Fold this sequence. Notes:
Blueprint: H1 15-21, H2 31-37, E1 76-81, E2 91-93, E3 96-100, E4 105-110, E5 116-121, E6 132-134, E7 137-141, E8 146-151, E9 157-162, E10 172-174, E11 177-181, E12 186-191, E13 197-202, E14 212-214, E15 217-221, E16 226-231, E17 237-242, E18 247-252, E19 255-260, E20 265-269, E21 274-279, E22 293-295, E23 298-302, E24 307-312, E25 318-323, E26 333-335, E27 338-342, E28 347-352, E29 358-363, E30 373-375, E31 378-382, E32 387-391
Antiparallel strand pairs: 1-32, 2-3, 3-4, 4-5, 6-7, 7-8, 8-9, 10-11, 11-12, 12-13, 14-15, 15-16, 16-17, 18-19, 19-20, 20-21, 22-23, 23-24, 24-25, 26-27, 27-28, 28-29, 30-31, 31-32
Amino acid sequence: MRLLxxxxxxQVKKQKELTYRFCSVLLFLLVPFxxxxxxxxxxxxxxxxxxxxxxxxGNRQLTGYSKSDVPSNLKPLWxxxxxxxxxxxxxxxxxxxxxxxxxxxxxxxxLGNGELRWRYNAKAAIGESSPTVSNGVxxxxxxxxxxxxxxxxxxxxxxxxxxxxxxxxxxxxxxxRVLIGSYDQNLYCLSAADGKLLWKLKTNGPVHSTPGxxxxxxxxAGCDEIMRAVRIANGRQIFQLVSxxxxxxxxxxxxxxxxTFNNEVLGVNLVARRVGWRYQHPQRQFPFYSSxxxxxxxxxxxxxxxxxxxxxxxxxxxxxxxxxxARVESSPAVAAGxxxxxxxxxxxxxxxxxxxxKIAEFNAxxxxxxxxxxxxxxxxxxxxxxxxxxxx
Length: 392
């Protein structure tokens, strides 16, 4: 794999833009509690099947956990040049990889060899919004505020829906409905068939987060420092929790786990509607922007302290940390007893899930802020130099 040493100098942004950028929240279901409390018909929702990764974090509970048997000796198989930065995380369905880029394209590639199948021109850059694939349709948002529905087989556009702000949230499909957040401060629910607006919920700040879904309820939080539980059928808010800081987060049936820009990871009991524990590194006080991988009673999350943290879900006790050389904004994916996570130091790290020891690293030469997608024994992730990598 060719190594790139290109240094990227970020321009200074307005404080408001920084605030918006830093307020992502992602919600997850805690695996052990699901096994105990969720009916068997819904058990599969907290992990992603071995052969697919249909949306951001793999499933509607956003656990980042795949059943795929990833090879122990991981090696690069192919790369694809997208032309501009890839901050969108890939979706993988039916042997096809779908990913967006800052070039304003949604592209479809063969998982087997990286061969291009089609390109769709969104006419605006695709940032952190990651594709979701459902019933033969790919959904993705762009930075002009448009949600696109595209036929998965050939890239034919089906419909668009315009919001009044950037879309960095990733769409989530629940039955015949699509949920999407916008920087216009609304959470939208649209008809998956034609993009018709079914309802929208007004918040007090940009909705950067991707909704987590459980039993007909969407959980979303972010820039207004409030986590909301919203009934998908009618858009009615069931309850809200004040987080006390901008958040970048995780959630489960009855419990939530999320990082904040107050340099903490919180464990929240949603039944009692209170914070059960707070985790903070004893020496390094930095915000958490990454979303957590949640499995087997453990929460794994990246920090802007350049570290990957593994926390005991029941108590908030630190189990291990792993240091990289730059911010970790990529959200960890977990499969086959390993953690796969990118860092802004330009590397994809493979860590032992149980003790945090490094198993392998791959140098892309450019920051990896996108999150890995895992399916059919392969790991796919993009970098900010516009390259998409497939390992297997």
